[in-house]
Protein backbone atom coordinates (compact mmCIF):
# COMPACT_ATOMS: atom_id res chain seq x y z
CA UNK A 1 0.00 0.00 0.00
CA UNK A 2 1.38 3.40 -1.01
CA UNK A 3 1.84 6.02 1.71
CA UNK A 4 0.80 9.55 0.73
CA UNK A 5 0.95 12.82 2.66
CA UNK A 6 -1.19 15.71 1.43
CA UNK A 7 -0.47 19.20 2.77
CA UNK A 8 -3.53 21.43 2.54
CA UNK A 9 -7.14 20.36 3.15
CA UNK A 10 -8.85 22.69 0.68
CA UNK A 11 -10.66 21.80 -2.54
CA UNK A 12 -7.56 20.38 -4.21
CA UNK A 13 -5.92 18.66 -1.29
CA UNK A 14 -8.91 17.10 0.43
CA UNK A 15 -10.61 15.88 -2.74
CA UNK A 16 -7.36 14.11 -3.63
CA UNK A 17 -7.13 12.75 -0.09
CA UNK A 18 -10.57 11.12 -0.31
CA UNK A 19 -9.87 9.76 -3.79
CA UNK A 20 -6.54 8.18 -2.79
CA UNK A 21 -7.60 7.02 0.70
CA UNK A 22 -9.88 4.45 -0.94
CA UNK A 23 -6.78 2.50 -2.01
CA UNK A 24 -3.82 3.90 -0.09
CA UNK A 25 -2.71 5.21 3.29
CA UNK A 26 -3.25 8.99 3.34
CA UNK A 27 -2.17 11.59 5.89
CA UNK A 28 -3.66 15.09 5.58
CA UNK A 29 -1.82 18.03 7.11
CA UNK A 30 -3.40 21.47 7.51
CA UNK A 31 -2.62 24.47 9.71
CA UNK A 32 -6.31 24.86 10.59
CA UNK A 33 -7.25 22.87 13.69
CA UNK A 34 -10.88 23.48 12.77
CA UNK A 35 -10.42 21.62 9.49
CA UNK A 36 -8.54 18.80 11.18
CA UNK A 37 -11.31 18.45 13.77
CA UNK A 38 -13.89 18.31 10.99
CA UNK A 39 -11.99 15.50 9.27
CA UNK A 40 -11.72 13.57 12.55
CA UNK A 41 -15.49 13.94 12.91
CA UNK A 42 -16.01 12.77 9.32
CA UNK A 43 -17.23 16.18 8.24
CA UNK A 44 -15.91 17.58 5.00
CA UNK A 45 -13.90 20.79 5.53
CA UNK A 46 -15.10 21.96 2.10
CA UNK A 47 -18.55 22.07 0.55
CA UNK A 48 -18.74 19.02 -1.69
CA UNK A 49 -21.68 16.63 -1.39
CA UNK A 50 -19.79 13.73 -2.96
CA UNK A 51 -16.93 14.10 -0.51
CA UNK A 52 -19.33 14.14 2.43
CA UNK A 53 -21.10 11.07 1.05
CA UNK A 54 -17.75 9.27 0.85
CA UNK A 55 -16.91 10.20 4.43
CA UNK A 56 -20.32 8.93 5.56
CA UNK A 57 -20.35 5.63 3.70
CA UNK A 58 -16.83 4.50 2.79
CA UNK A 59 -13.99 2.96 4.77
CA UNK A 60 -11.22 5.43 4.02
CA UNK A 61 -7.63 5.00 5.19
CA UNK A 62 -7.41 8.65 6.15
CA UNK A 63 -5.75 10.46 9.05
CA UNK A 64 -5.27 14.18 9.68
CA UNK A 65 -3.19 16.46 11.89
CA UNK A 66 -1.59 19.91 11.97
CA UNK A 67 2.05 18.81 12.08
CA UNK A 68 4.17 18.11 9.03
CA UNK A 69 6.83 16.49 11.18
CA UNK A 70 5.79 12.90 11.77
CA UNK A 71 3.52 12.90 8.72
CA UNK A 72 5.98 12.78 5.83
CA UNK A 73 8.93 10.64 6.95
CA UNK A 74 7.59 7.39 5.47
CA UNK A 75 5.58 8.87 2.60
CA UNK A 76 6.15 7.71 -0.95
CA UNK A 77 4.56 10.90 -2.25
CA UNK A 78 4.11 14.31 -0.62
CA UNK A 79 1.43 16.37 -2.35
CA UNK A 80 1.52 20.12 -1.71
CA UNK A 81 -1.86 21.85 -2.07
CA UNK A 82 -1.49 25.02 -0.02
CA UNK A 83 -3.04 28.33 -1.16
CA UNK A 84 -1.13 30.61 -3.53
CA UNK A 85 -3.00 33.88 -3.64
CA UNK A 86 -2.11 36.46 -6.26
CA UNK A 87 -0.20 39.43 -4.84
CA UNK A 88 -1.02 42.58 -6.86
CA UNK A 89 2.02 44.38 -5.43
CA UNK A 90 4.51 41.84 -6.81
CA UNK A 91 2.39 40.68 -9.79
CA UNK A 92 3.03 37.10 -8.73
CA UNK A 93 1.50 34.33 -6.67
CA UNK A 94 2.47 34.23 -3.01
CA UNK A 95 4.30 30.91 -3.06
CA UNK A 96 5.91 31.13 0.39
CA UNK A 97 3.83 28.29 1.85
CA UNK A 98 4.66 26.01 -1.09
CA UNK A 99 8.39 26.71 -0.80
CA UNK A 100 8.39 26.16 2.96
CA UNK A 101 6.50 22.85 2.77
CA UNK A 102 8.78 21.56 0.02
CA UNK A 103 11.90 22.54 1.95
CA UNK A 104 10.67 20.86 5.13
CA UNK A 105 9.53 17.74 3.28
CA UNK A 106 13.00 17.35 1.78
CA UNK A 107 14.50 17.56 5.28
CA UNK A 108 12.12 14.96 6.73
CA UNK A 109 12.12 12.52 3.78
CA UNK A 110 15.01 11.65 1.49
CA UNK A 111 13.11 9.53 -1.04
CA UNK A 112 9.56 10.82 -1.64
CA UNK A 113 8.49 12.55 -4.82
CA UNK A 114 7.16 15.96 -3.84
CA UNK A 115 4.26 16.95 -6.08
CA UNK A 116 3.07 20.56 -6.17
CA UNK A 117 -0.65 20.82 -6.89
CA UNK A 118 -0.88 24.49 -5.91
CA UNK A 119 -0.94 26.84 -8.88
CA UNK A 120 2.45 28.54 -9.29
CA UNK A 121 4.13 30.95 -11.72
CA UNK A 122 5.68 29.53 -14.87
CA UNK A 123 9.26 28.51 -14.07
CA UNK A 124 8.70 28.23 -10.31
CA UNK A 125 9.36 24.49 -9.91
CA UNK A 126 12.68 24.54 -11.78
CA UNK A 127 13.81 27.51 -9.70
CA UNK A 128 12.78 25.80 -6.46
CA UNK A 129 14.59 22.58 -7.40
CA UNK A 130 17.71 24.59 -8.14
CA UNK A 131 17.45 26.58 -4.91
CA UNK A 132 16.99 23.44 -2.78
CA UNK A 133 19.54 21.40 -4.76
CA UNK A 134 17.14 18.59 -5.64
CA UNK A 135 15.27 17.10 -8.56
CA UNK A 136 12.47 15.53 -6.49
CA UNK A 137 9.98 18.41 -6.74
CA UNK A 138 7.54 18.25 -9.65
CA UNK A 139 4.42 20.16 -10.64
CA UNK A 140 1.14 18.48 -11.55
CA UNK A 141 -1.75 20.81 -12.45
CA UNK A 142 -5.28 20.16 -11.22
CA UNK A 143 -8.44 20.97 -13.17
CA UNK A 144 -11.29 20.95 -10.65
CA UNK A 145 -14.65 22.67 -10.27
CA UNK A 146 -15.79 23.98 -6.90
CA UNK A 147 -18.41 21.72 -5.39
CA UNK A 148 -17.47 18.89 -7.78
CA UNK A 149 -13.83 18.39 -6.89
CA UNK A 150 -14.10 14.69 -6.05
CA UNK A 151 -16.08 13.96 -9.20
CA UNK A 152 -13.49 15.77 -11.30
CA UNK A 153 -10.76 13.65 -9.71
CA UNK A 154 -12.75 10.50 -10.41
CA UNK A 155 -13.37 11.50 -14.03
CA UNK A 156 -10.39 13.69 -14.99
CA UNK A 157 -10.09 15.14 -18.49
CA UNK A 158 -6.33 14.48 -18.37
CA UNK A 159 -3.48 13.81 -15.96
CA UNK A 160 -0.36 15.92 -16.40
CA UNK A 161 2.90 15.65 -14.48
CA UNK A 162 5.81 18.01 -15.07
CA UNK A 163 8.61 15.46 -15.19
CA UNK A 164 9.57 12.63 -17.50
CA UNK A 165 10.85 10.12 -14.94
CA UNK A 166 9.72 6.74 -13.65
CA UNK A 167 8.62 8.37 -10.38
CA UNK A 168 6.55 10.94 -12.26
CA UNK A 169 4.90 8.25 -14.36
CA UNK A 170 4.25 6.27 -11.18
CA UNK A 171 2.41 9.24 -9.70
CA UNK A 172 0.36 9.71 -12.87
CA UNK A 173 -0.61 6.04 -12.84
CA UNK A 174 -1.48 6.31 -9.11
CA UNK A 175 -4.06 8.99 -9.97
CA UNK A 176 -5.26 7.10 -13.02
CA UNK A 177 -5.85 3.85 -11.13
CA UNK A 178 -7.69 5.68 -8.34
CA UNK A 179 -10.08 7.28 -10.84
CA UNK A 180 -13.33 5.73 -12.05
CA UNK A 181 -12.81 6.88 -15.62
CA UNK A 182 -10.76 4.63 -17.89
CA UNK A 183 -8.40 5.52 -20.74
CA UNK A 184 -7.43 8.85 -19.18
CA UNK A 185 -4.90 10.76 -21.30
CA UNK A 186 -1.58 11.03 -19.44
CA UNK A 187 0.96 13.65 -20.46
CA UNK A 188 4.47 13.90 -19.03
CA UNK A 189 6.15 17.23 -19.80
CA UNK A 190 8.88 19.25 -18.19
CA UNK A 191 8.00 21.33 -15.15
CA UNK A 192 7.75 24.70 -16.85
CA UNK A 193 5.49 23.33 -19.58
CA UNK A 194 3.15 21.80 -16.98
CA UNK A 195 2.93 25.15 -15.18
CA UNK A 196 2.16 26.89 -18.47
CA UNK A 197 -0.58 24.36 -19.27
CA UNK A 198 -2.38 25.24 -16.04
CA UNK A 199 -2.29 29.00 -16.59
CA UNK A 200 -3.13 28.87 -20.29
CA UNK A 201 -6.03 26.48 -19.70
CA UNK A 202 -7.63 28.69 -17.05
CA UNK A 203 -6.98 31.87 -19.00
CA UNK A 204 -8.71 30.31 -22.01
CA UNK A 205 -11.75 29.62 -19.83
CA UNK A 206 -11.64 33.22 -18.61
CA UNK A 207 -11.46 34.35 -22.24
CA UNK A 208 -14.50 32.26 -23.09
CA UNK A 209 -16.49 33.78 -20.22
CA UNK A 210 -15.39 37.25 -21.27
CA UNK A 211 -16.26 36.60 -24.91
CA UNK A 212 -19.87 35.60 -24.28
CA UNK A 213 -20.27 38.38 -21.74
CA UNK A 214 -19.19 40.91 -24.35
CA UNK A 215 -21.57 39.31 -26.83
CA UNK A 216 -24.34 39.78 -24.26
CA UNK A 217 -23.33 43.40 -23.65
CA UNK A 218 -23.51 44.09 -27.40
CA UNK A 219 -26.93 42.48 -27.70
CA UNK A 220 -28.27 44.36 -24.67
CA UNK A 221 -27.08 47.74 -25.95
CA UNK A 222 -28.66 47.12 -29.38
CA UNK A 223 -31.87 45.52 -28.11
CA UNK A 224 -31.09 42.10 -29.59
CA UNK A 225 -31.92 38.63 -28.25
CA UNK A 226 -28.69 37.38 -26.68
CA UNK A 227 -29.95 33.81 -26.42
CA UNK A 228 -30.69 33.57 -30.13
CA UNK A 229 -27.24 34.86 -31.03
CA UNK A 230 -25.43 32.53 -28.62
CA UNK A 231 -27.41 29.51 -29.79
CA UNK A 232 -26.67 30.33 -33.41
CA UNK A 233 -22.97 30.86 -32.74
CA UNK A 234 -22.62 27.72 -30.63
CA UNK A 235 -24.27 25.39 -33.15
CA UNK A 236 -20.88 25.49 -34.85
CA UNK A 237 -19.27 22.29 -33.48
CA UNK A 238 -15.89 24.03 -33.43
CA UNK A 239 -17.32 26.41 -30.81
CA UNK A 240 -19.74 24.13 -28.95
CA UNK A 241 -22.53 24.81 -26.48
CA UNK A 242 -20.56 25.09 -23.25
CA UNK A 243 -19.12 27.82 -21.04
CA UNK A 244 -21.33 30.30 -22.84
CA UNK A 245 -23.89 31.46 -20.28
CA UNK A 246 -23.63 35.22 -19.66
CA UNK A 247 -22.72 36.29 -16.16
CA UNK A 248 -21.50 39.29 -14.20
CA UNK A 249 -17.91 38.24 -14.95
CA UNK A 250 -15.48 35.48 -14.08
CA UNK A 251 -14.28 35.11 -10.50
CA UNK A 252 -13.48 32.53 -7.84
CA UNK A 253 -10.28 30.85 -6.75
CA UNK A 254 -8.61 30.35 -10.10
CA UNK A 255 -9.56 32.38 -13.15
CA UNK A 256 -8.81 35.91 -11.87
CA UNK A 257 -5.46 35.07 -10.30
CA UNK A 258 -4.34 32.64 -13.00
CA UNK A 259 -5.02 35.08 -15.84
CA UNK A 260 -3.19 37.86 -13.96
CA UNK A 261 -0.26 35.54 -13.26
CA UNK A 262 -0.07 34.55 -16.92
CA UNK A 263 -0.03 38.23 -17.89
CA UNK A 264 2.84 38.80 -15.45
CA UNK A 265 4.73 35.90 -17.06
CA UNK A 266 4.34 37.71 -20.41
CA UNK A 267 6.49 40.56 -19.05
CA UNK A 268 9.12 40.17 -21.80
CA UNK A 269 6.82 38.64 -24.43
CA UNK A 270 4.61 40.56 -26.90
CA UNK A 271 0.88 40.11 -26.21
CA UNK A 272 -2.48 41.82 -26.57
CA UNK A 273 -5.08 39.16 -25.81
CA UNK A 274 -4.12 38.27 -22.22
CA UNK A 275 -4.40 41.89 -21.09
CA UNK A 276 -7.69 42.24 -22.99
CA UNK A 277 -9.21 39.26 -21.14
CA UNK A 278 -8.47 40.87 -17.77
CA UNK A 279 -9.66 44.31 -18.90
CA UNK A 280 -12.85 42.81 -20.34
CA UNK A 281 -13.81 41.45 -16.92
CA UNK A 282 -13.55 44.94 -15.43
CA UNK A 283 -15.58 46.45 -18.27
CA UNK A 284 -18.31 43.85 -17.83
CA UNK A 285 -18.81 44.77 -14.17
CA UNK A 286 -19.00 48.44 -15.18
CA UNK A 287 -21.72 47.60 -17.70
CA UNK A 288 -23.74 45.49 -15.23
CA UNK A 289 -23.63 48.18 -12.56
CA UNK A 290 -24.65 50.91 -15.01
CA UNK A 291 -27.46 48.73 -16.36
CA UNK A 292 -28.80 48.24 -12.83
CA UNK A 293 -28.49 51.96 -12.10
CA UNK A 294 -30.80 52.70 -15.07
CA UNK A 295 -33.63 51.33 -12.92
CA UNK A 296 -32.87 54.08 -10.39
CA UNK A 297 -33.02 51.82 -7.31
CA UNK A 298 -32.62 53.23 -3.82
CA UNK A 299 -31.88 49.78 -2.39
CA UNK A 300 -30.42 46.80 -4.25
CA UNK A 301 -30.61 43.31 -2.81
CA UNK A 302 -27.83 40.84 -3.52
CA UNK A 303 -28.92 37.21 -3.77
CA UNK A 304 -25.84 35.15 -2.88
CA UNK A 305 -22.21 36.13 -3.10
CA UNK A 306 -21.12 32.61 -4.11
CA UNK A 307 -19.92 32.04 -7.63
CA UNK A 308 -22.00 29.04 -8.55
CA UNK A 309 -24.48 26.48 -7.30
CA UNK A 310 -23.10 23.87 -4.91
CA UNK A 311 -20.22 26.08 -3.80
CA UNK A 312 -19.54 28.03 -0.61
CA UNK A 313 -16.80 30.17 -2.16
CA UNK A 314 -17.28 33.83 -2.90
CA UNK A 315 -13.64 34.83 -3.19
CA UNK A 316 -13.39 37.52 -5.90
CA UNK A 317 -16.94 36.78 -7.02
CA UNK A 318 -17.96 39.13 -9.79
CA UNK A 319 -21.06 40.25 -7.93
CA UNK A 320 -18.84 41.90 -5.31
CA UNK A 321 -17.38 44.13 -8.01
CA UNK A 322 -20.90 45.11 -9.04
CA UNK A 323 -21.77 45.85 -5.41
CA UNK A 324 -18.81 48.21 -5.00
CA UNK A 325 -19.79 50.14 -8.11
CA UNK A 326 -23.40 50.50 -6.96
CA UNK A 327 -22.37 51.66 -3.51
CA UNK A 328 -20.01 54.24 -4.99
CA UNK A 329 -23.10 55.79 -6.64
CA UNK A 330 -24.93 56.05 -3.31
CA UNK A 331 -27.12 52.96 -3.67
CA UNK A 332 -27.94 51.08 -0.46
CA UNK A 333 -26.90 47.44 -0.85
CA UNK A 334 -28.28 44.60 1.27
CA UNK A 335 -27.17 40.97 1.09
CA UNK A 336 -28.64 37.51 1.43
CA UNK A 337 -25.83 34.98 1.83
CA UNK A 338 -26.42 31.99 4.17
CA UNK A 339 -22.67 31.35 4.40
CA UNK A 340 -22.13 34.69 6.15
CA UNK A 341 -22.54 34.81 9.91
CA UNK A 342 -21.56 38.46 10.38
CA UNK A 343 -24.22 41.21 10.43
CA UNK A 344 -22.39 43.23 7.75
CA UNK A 345 -20.16 42.55 4.75
CA UNK A 346 -18.00 45.48 3.61
CA UNK A 347 -20.42 47.81 5.41
CA UNK A 348 -23.49 46.33 3.72
CA UNK A 349 -26.21 44.80 5.87
CA UNK A 350 -26.49 41.00 5.78
CA UNK A 351 -30.03 39.63 6.06
CA UNK A 352 -30.68 36.18 7.46
CA UNK A 353 -34.18 36.14 5.97
CA UNK A 354 -34.63 36.20 2.18
CA UNK A 355 -38.23 37.38 2.55
CA UNK A 356 -36.99 40.60 4.13
CA UNK A 357 -34.52 41.17 1.29
CA UNK A 358 -37.36 40.78 -1.21
CA UNK A 359 -39.44 43.25 0.76
CA UNK A 360 -36.77 45.92 1.23
CA UNK A 361 -35.17 45.82 -2.26
CA UNK A 362 -36.14 47.84 -5.31
CA UNK A 363 -33.96 45.56 -7.47
CA UNK A 364 -32.58 42.11 -6.63
CA UNK A 365 -29.51 41.06 -8.57
CA UNK A 366 -28.35 37.46 -8.92
CA UNK A 367 -25.61 35.98 -11.04
CA UNK A 368 -27.71 32.86 -11.60
CA UNK A 369 -31.48 32.40 -11.57
CA UNK A 370 -33.04 30.58 -8.64
CA UNK A 371 -36.50 29.20 -7.99
CA UNK A 372 -36.50 30.98 -4.64
CA UNK A 373 -36.73 34.29 -6.53
CA UNK A 374 -39.58 33.33 -8.84
CA UNK A 375 -42.08 35.37 -6.83
CA UNK A 376 -40.14 38.62 -7.36
CA UNK A 377 -39.39 38.33 -11.08
CA UNK A 378 -40.43 41.98 -11.54
CA UNK A 379 -37.56 43.04 -9.25
CA UNK A 380 -35.02 40.57 -10.59
CA UNK A 381 -31.88 41.52 -12.51
CA UNK A 382 -29.70 38.78 -13.98
CA UNK A 383 -27.92 37.98 -17.24
CA UNK A 384 -28.41 34.21 -16.80
CA UNK A 385 -29.97 32.68 -19.91
CA UNK A 386 -29.50 28.94 -19.60
CA UNK A 387 -29.89 28.28 -15.87
CA UNK A 388 -26.45 26.76 -15.56
CA UNK A 389 -22.95 27.78 -14.52
Question: How would you describe what is shown here?
Answer:
- With 389 residues, the protein is α/β, with parallel strands linked by helices.
- The protein has 2 domains: 3-189, Rossmann fold, CATH 3.40.50.720; 199-381, 3-Layer(aba) Sandwich (Rossmann fold), CATH 3.40.50.
- The protein is built from 13 helices and 16 strands.
- Strands 3-2-1-4-7-8 form a 6-stranded parallel sheet, sandwiched between helices. A 6-stranded mixed sheet has the order 13-14-12-11-15-16, with helices on both faces.
Summarize the structure.
With 389 residues, this protein is an alpha/beta fold. Helices cover 41% and strands 14% of the residues. The strands form four sheets. A six-stranded parallel sheet has the order 3-2-1-4-7-8, sandwiched between helices. It has a six-stranded mixed sheet with strand order 13-14-12-11-15-16, sandwiched between helices.
State the share of residues found in helices, binned by percent: 40-55%
Strand content range: 5-15%
User: What is the CATH T-level topology of the largest domain?
Assistant: Rossmann fold
Q: Work out the helix count.
A: 13
Total beta-strand segments: 16
How many discrete structural domains? 2
* SSE order, one letter for each helix or strand: EHEHHEEEEHEHEHEHEHHHHEHEEEHEE
The main pleated sheet reads as: 6 strands, parallel
How are the strands of the largest sheet arranged?
A: 3-2-1-4-7-8
Overall structural class, as computed from helix and strand content, comes to alpha/beta
Q: Whole-number average pLDDT?
A: 94
Q: Please give the CATH class of the largest domain.
A: Alpha Beta
**Shape verdict:** globular
The radius of gyration over CA amounts to 22 Å
CATH architecture of the largest domain: 3-Layer(aba) Sandwich
Which homologous superfamily in CATH is the superfamily of the largest domain?
A: NAD(P)-binding Rossmann-like Domain
